[in-house]
Design a protein that fits this description.
This protein is α+β, with helices and mostly antiparallel strands. The protein folds into two domains: 30 residues; 82 residues, Thrombin, subunit H (Beta Barrel). It is built from one helix and six strands, in the order αββββββ. A six-stranded antiparallel beta sheet has the order 1-2-5-4-3-6, with no helix packed on it. A hairpin with a 3-residue loop joins β1 and β2. The longest helix has 29 residues.
Length: 116
C-alpha cells in the first residue's frame, strides 16, 4: 500500500512539473517572438491578453545578427530593427495576429511594444 501511495505521489509531482514547464517556456523563452508569418502580411506573435496586448497596438520588430567580431570585449551580436507590425486580432491569452506594416518580418524575430 505504501508503494502505491509513493508511486501515485511521484506521478502527480511529475505531471505538475511538466505543466509548469509549459508556462515557464512561454513566459521566458517565447514571449515576444514571431511564431509564424502568413503570406508576408500577417505575423503570429507570442503576445496576448496575459501580456496586456490590445487590438491596434504598434510593435517594433527586430532580430539579432552576429557581428563576427573576434575582438575581446566587443558585442557578439547586434540588434537590427527590421520592421513594424500592428495587432489586428487577439487569438487568446498567449497569441495575437499582427499586420506587417513595414519591413521584412521573419519567423523567430522579436516584437516589442512601441511606447507612445
Amino acid at each position: 500500500m505504501k508503494t502505491i501511495l509513493i508511486k501515485t505521489i511521484a506521478v502527480l509531482l511529475f505531471f505538475s512539473v511538466i505543466s509548469g514547464c509549459a508556462s515557464i517556456r512561454h513566459d521566458y523563452l517565447m514571449k515576444g517572438q514571431v511564431l509564424d508569418v502568413k503570406d508576408d502580411s500577417i505575423a503570429v506573435v507570442c503576445v496576448g491578453l496575459n501580456d496586456g496586448a490590445t487590438v491596434g497596438q504598434m510593435l517594433s520588430v527586430y532580430r539579432f545578427k552576429p557581428t563576427y567580431s573576434i575582438v575581446e570585449g566587443t558585442d557578439q551580436f547586434e540588434r537590427v530593427d527590421v520592421g513594424k507590425v500592428k495587432i489586428k486580432s487577439i487569438v487568446n491569452e498567449h497569441y495575437a495576429n499582427a499586420e506587417i506594416l513595414v519591413g521584412e518580418v521573419h519567423k523567430n524575430d522579436i516584437v516589442q511594444l512601441i511606447e507612445d
